[in-house]
Design brief:
The structure is a homodimer.
Chain A lengths: L11 H6 L13 E7 L5 E7 L1 H10 L3 E4 L4 E4 L8 E8 L5 E8 L15 E2 L11 E2 L9 H5 L6
């Protein structure tokens, strides 16, 4: 199905308390999407969806995104096979952010070869120039060059 | 401390594998920040940080954001008392998103009076005009009018 028409945005009350999905796309036509691992709760990645990606995700139950760098629609896993099956989707109060709880196929979500994109910690109580700390559990789970080559990072 | 100078962004390899925090602020000078409950893993909110908010969060260990609607820096809880103590901060591969695991003070993070901003589910396998489903566990935990009045929604 190719329809991706959402409800018109009504009053603040309607947007926040209503039952109509009326996403607030930004100037580039995007909403933020947060993907967490449905089993572990781990934050896997933060990406963006345009109206078409959001509609395709809803209809197919698989995660579609819009790549800002490549300026194109992108089915997660289309080149890597690391698809995301969406078990639950939620929308936030003002409807400019989407949360999907996914079953991540393959070894990882991150194009660097890791399970999660969030593999470095920022030390707290320091100045912002303190060194990041690599998560020792976040060793590369796959070889990104072998999986993606020089092609699309999905 | 008022410094909020971050590292220059280097090569892709440096940004993705390096130990320097070199955030990729967007055209509005913002990065996306995802806040999860450190105890339960629940996604509480998605917001934005400018360089100052990010630096203040790192230095203070309390969440600061930049409100896009109010165009100003905002310490989470400054009017509600619902502050967020940051137990861990992470940055993603291309450094345009921040993840904070927080201890949420008070009954909730959402200005609508709920624990989390993500209190409505989007039905999957349907068209995007299907009705949202309210999370029955997400009843209002506090009265937003009593806490915030007509003032800042923090």
């Amino acid at each position: 199905m190719d329809t991706y028409t959402f409800s018109e945005r009504g009053s603040v009350e309607e947007v926040e308390e209503g039952r109509a999905l009326a996403p607030k796309f930004d100037a580039d036509g995007l909403v933020t999407c947060v993907a967490t691992d449905a089993a572990t709760g781990e934050l896997l990645m933060v990406a963006h969806m345009n109206a078409e990606a959001l509609a395709k995700t809803i209809e197919s139950g698989e995660a579609w995104y819009f790549s800002r760098s490549r300026r194109r629609l992108w089915r997660k896993g289309e080149s890597s096979g690391h698809v995301q099956r969406v078990l639950e989707m939620r929308v936030d109060c003002d409807q400019d952010a989407i949360w999907i709880r996914v079953e991540q196929a393959g070894p990882g979500a991150c194009h660097t070869g890791r399970r999660s994109c969030f593999y470095r910690a920022v030390p707290l109580g320091k100045t912002p120039d303190a060194s990041l700390v690599m998560d020792l559990r976040a060793e590369k789970a796959f070889d990104p060059q072998a999986v993606y080559g020089d092609a699309a990072k999905s």
